[in-house]
Amino acid sequence: MGKKSPAADREAGEDFGLVREFLAGSEAAFDRLVLRYQNRVFRTCYRMLGDYHEADDCAQEVFVRVWRSLKKFRFESSFSTWVFRISVNTCRNRLRSAGYRRRRRTLRLDPPGEGEDGPPSVEIGDDSRTPEKELARKETGEMIQAAIDSLPGDQKTMVVLRDIEGFTYEEISDITGLNPGTVRSKLARARGRLREKLSGVLDEGG
Amino acid sequence: MKCEEITNLLSGYIDGELDKGELKRVEEHLRGCPACAEELRVLRGCVEGIGSLEEVEPPADFLNRVHARLEKKSGLRSALGKIFTPLPLRIPLEALAAAAAVILVIYLVKTPPDGIRDESAGVPSAGLMQEALDSAPPDSGLWSVRGISAEESKQEVLYARAEKAETVPGEAAWSAPAAPPPPAVLELEEPTLGQAVMADAGPPPAEPAVELVLLVEPGADFLGEAALSRSRMKAVTARQLEAASPGDADEPLRAGPPVRLEDLVAREGGEIVSRETLADGTRRLVIKLPPDRYPPFRESLSRISDLPPAAPPLPGEELETFRFRLTSE
Predict the structure, then answer these.
(1) Facing B50 at nearest CB: one of A59, A88, A159
(2) Is the pTM of this model over 0.95?
(3) Is A174 helix (H, G, I), strand (E, B) or coil?
């Protein structure tokens, strides 16, 4: 397991090149790294935190930390693994912070109006998206996100890294420092919980 | 093999992460067990459903916002030399003079048992520590704590040598459990740290020890006062919580004996392995603990601060960034 594709190897090499350029003083190289990773980091933050604005703030913080920590990057792991380690740690810090919990409570009491605090819809030219289907899809997405939100931190991390970001167990092990066996068991428990919470929502889809 | 054992393996089966023996057992079982085959179908549908969640994207000006934040923070750091000037006006001047801004970043990294990093060059000299002591207001209570004997007080308390306590009036305000709250309600800025140290993402070596790092921002004198009384610390942090969110304060404050970081570390069989001052003036303290002693240590920390009780940490994880200010009133 964990065999990387040639494309992944090429991307990792490009990342290293950009890191070296940054360390040599190129701010543009940092910008390119941000542009390469902002969508994935943002998505991870969003799925971990369950809120668009929190995710925005958190993802910015991730890249600020990347900027500050890059001088310590030792090229021993891929940049991708490293940046996701920072992302996961930043999210987990935030999940534990009193401020975040307070804001989440407030959000639950005062749900945002349409288009206010939720993620902006991504416009994709897809004729099959009728309003009914769109609504059903949105509702299903919200239920899945609520189920992810309800997971303990470690399990949430596993689901986001594996099922949303598509990392291998070995990569997740690199990111979290857990051994692959633990990754496997935590992921199995997380999925078991989600399967219970989402039965009736997704089980017709197999 | 029982169905329960099989269902535990289905997640790994979906990902192709079973070893050969497990794979064979699962496939054999699935051929003869419709219930487990159905469970597999449902679980797979669930995994696919999660994987097909609608895409979310950052705002279009995300990169600009990152830059704006970097600039803001770099401006903030340059202002740290003037750390007290931007504080809200609600703090009286005399409190300001004695205020200490502290940011502790604690994170875990795993190092080989003897893998202490070479930080000796950064250990502050006695002269530097003396200078730090001299810069503390004489009546700030920074270096003396009720209940600590003269002998104990000779121990280093983080960066300070506590013999300075001899020159300080005996009773420290820190430890008065029933002391009225200070006139100032101290306000916190958003934590800005995490930047000074970040564990690199290499895989942890075998046979790890747990290493914690505390960072103290330039200008902070708090760490001379590791012997804060528990009640005092609690009072400060609870007030902050209350100020930030009325009704969200912690449980009622309890009096307690002074707690010193060194004592907490020693009790868990750990040691403070290095102290250094980084180039930007941030002070950095490294504590090593046996891995299994981290949870009780963290529990102890949670009792003297506003840290929540520990969740099992991930190695390499930056655990906490928390920030508070103290005054001697």
Answers:
(1) A159
(2) no
(3) helix
